[in-house]
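Weekly modeling sync, notes
Attendees: S.R. (lead), two postdocs, one rotation student

Agenda item 3: backlog of single-chain predictions. S.R. asked that every request posted to the team notebook include the full sequence so nobody has to chase files. The rotation student volunteered to paste the first one in as an example of the format we agreed on. Action items at the bottom.

Example entry:
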Amino acid sequence: MMGVRLRAHLVAFALVAPLLAFIVLFFLWPLVAMTTVAVSDPTVARALPETSAVAGDWDRVSPPPAELQEALVADLRALDDQQVLGDVTRRLNSAQAGFRTLMGKTVSAVRETEGPVDLVAVDKRWENPAFWRAVADYAGSIYTDRNLLAAVDLERNVAGEIVAMPEGSSANFAILVRTFVVAATVTLGCLLIGLPYAMLAAAVDGWRRQLLLAAVLLPLWTSLLVRTAAWFILLQDNGLINATLMASGLTSAPIPLIFNRLGVVIAMVHVLLPFMVLPIFSVLLAIPKNLMPAAASLGAHPVRAFLRVLLPLSLRGIVSGSLLVFMSAIGYYITPALIGGPRDQLISSVIAFYATGSANWGMAGALGLVLLAATLVLYAVYGRLSADRTARA
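Predicted structure, as returned to the notebook:
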């Protein structure tokens, strides 16, 4: 009997093993890697081991001890990998501007001299404690909250307290706010269009329903890049939309619909509309069609019947569709990059810059964690609302 049960368990595990492997390889592993990159930066600590050993004892307030300066000189003298030196310089320069020229000058002086080196004599900038704090912060520990704080325009001061970054030094938080505002606007636009459309599709049947659903599903069969490029053509000053408006006499000049927020919202609403329509449609199909006529027979106005009967019953589909659209919108990259202007780029563009433009994977991972946290919060809210509605039912 036990052998039969064990065999059944092994068969069941073999059936789900490919799915588990897929989840681990393509979801959990990238998530762990992104989190690790966001909270750790071992480049400087590994490249400057002696400096790392001494930096932890410095309080970052008093002048740097002679042991720290000697350790830095020894590490720079022993560092012969130019690629690693370049990585160290980029890390330090991101914390304190001026390290690119300072490191080049210091490394040359250190390698040309035997024995102790007076770094202040090499460059007066070594008298500035800010440069030493940057070295100590990066070399002191491989784990840091620097990237997570910088993702929302925060940093630690000399005393270790979390404070806001100086104005103009970073715009990550402003772009995050812009991303959420655009995502909320797109979600509202999809809801205003998708709810009536889903109600119409659920009210008809036969070929009419198939035609309405095909019109919604058709964009999903087309590449996102192709759809965005199509809107790029349609929204131009001499595109089809402006040409139609001017030909009908509604406008005397082209309306700016591209390289601005309006064009981004229009294109994103079109792309994400199916994710709003389909969840609402699936919920509406399960609602008995005689409820609205019953409410009308009892004297309810159609608007009142909709607000009191149909809307509450379709709320689960509305919340599901809104959640799907919002989570998709906050991570959009192609559409804002092609349709929007410089002030319309979302946080995905910043992540792409850090990942490919400056090779700062830590900041890219930290910003990705911010979006992941927002998604998890939305999931938690949705789960709580669903649980409350189930409990009341």
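Discussion: group reviewed the output briefly. The two ends are 42 Å apart (CA to CA).
Action items: rotation student to repeat for the remaining queue; S.R. to check formatting next week.
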